[in-house]
Design a protein that fits this description.
Length: 124
DNA sequence: ATTCTGACAGCAA
DNA sequence: TTTGCTGCCAGAA
């Protein structure tokens, strides 16, 4: 158990991705968070890239995952190219009253929603 | 099996 | 301020 996993079961992986989806679904309407914040909340502060991977396949989920509410640490819409269209992510955000300028969320600090502060310490 | 590439983030120059 | 390197680790080639 010293290595990343002696028996890397798929359930473990699915569990991590699943937890990412669950946290993402808890982001309030009109609010946003970033990849690192989700990773940190899940106990893997240096696995922000994995959160991105999870978002990459979130479309396969039965339950809707508001991936548009997840941006990078600077409030930049770094994942916009992975939506059905180049401006879909921005549209979805604007539909929630969020202002986007040059692929960046306006008043990001104010709209930022930190799961580590808003949620109880890992209740999955 | 091995290498490469990310929807990231932190830090050193 | 900007660029580059590194850690992270799951998939694709």
């Amino acid at each position: 158990m010293t290595h990343s996993s002696n028996h890397p079961t798929k359930s473990d992986d699915i569990n991590f991705f699943e937890m990412v989806y669950q946290v993402t679904r808890l982001i309030p309407f009109g609010r946003v968070t970033n990849y690192g914040a989700i990773a940190k909340y899940l106990g893997s502060p240096q696995s922000s890239r994995m959160v991105g991977w999870a978002m990459n396949t979130c479309h396969a989920q039965n339950e809707f995952v508001p991936a548009h509410r997840v941006v990078n640490r600077n409030g930049l819409l770094t994942g916009k190219m992975h939506f059905t269209g180049p401006d879909v992510m921005q549209q979805l955000l604007e539909n929630e009253g969020i202002v986007v300028e040059n692929d960046q969320i306006a008043s990001f600090a104010k709209l930022f929603w930190d799961p580590s502060k808003e949620l109880s310490p890992i209740t999955e």
